[in-house]
Amino acid sequence: MGRRVTWCGVVTGLVVLAAGCAPPGDAPAPAPTSAAPVSPGAETPSALPVPASGQVRDAGTPLADAPPAGRASGALLPADGGTVQVQDATDGTTLTTVTGRAGTLAWIAPPEGGQAGLQSDGSVTLQDAAGTVVAALTAPVGDDGAPGAWRSQGDVLALEAASTSASFVVGTAAVSSATWGDADGGRSLLVVPADWVRGGSLAAQQALVSQLALAEPEAASPSMQAQLWCHVLGARDKASWNLEPWRPEVSTTTLLMTRCNPTDDDA
Hints:
Blueprint: E1 3-6, H1 53-59, E2 61-62, E3 75-78, E4 83-88, E5 94-99, E6 103-109, E7 115-118, E8 124-127, E9 133-137, E10 141-142, E11 149-153, E12 156-161, E13 165-171, E14 175-183, E15 186-193, H2 202-215, H3 222-234, E16 241-243, H4 252-257
Antiparallel strand pairs: 1-4, 2-3, 3-6, 4-5, 5-13, 6-12, 7-8, 8-9, 9-13, 10-13, 11-12, 14-15, 15-16
């Protein structure tokens, strides 16, 4: 059931490859665990006074009720007279719709001490002060179907649309489970990504890599991140992904030929 909050006066997917595919290059480059902040060049003037991030956090509402590990997920403040409606989805995300005057509909602030990262597909990551991605936001879409945009304005993001309403999806907890066991004769981390991460935005991928490294620091090794990236691209429908710390770093070609499971004989 949707939750409606009112203030008065105040989906690009991955390129899906065959199982075991990875991006071109000498080695698969996993999504970085910390996104670059939005470029100052992305700033655009606004007819409305732009609030500071602290004002957005104080006067706004949390972006999500259940951020990962109890971490703050950032906050949203609609523009003057705007309203916000939040609907829970079955895949663990929420659909947020902001209604107001066309132009700047709302502002988003990352957690205190954190930053926002704008991805090339128009999605956004929000990081906390420790650099962990705590929320992934899809590119906004107006009620007329036209794309909206996230714009940098000072230390906040503006939600902009040519229509009077725009919606975006918010995902927070990207890892459903990560359990150590044995596979192929060695230690193996069995990873189950959240449903919304599979085939999700670039921000969703960032959240998965970042939160898995936080939960299991060993998963931040180059070999395990390469295996993770390989599975993200080529095995998104597989129930779980096995990542092994003992597997060697190999070229992309070898990683593909071994279906993300290289051994020392392949190095």
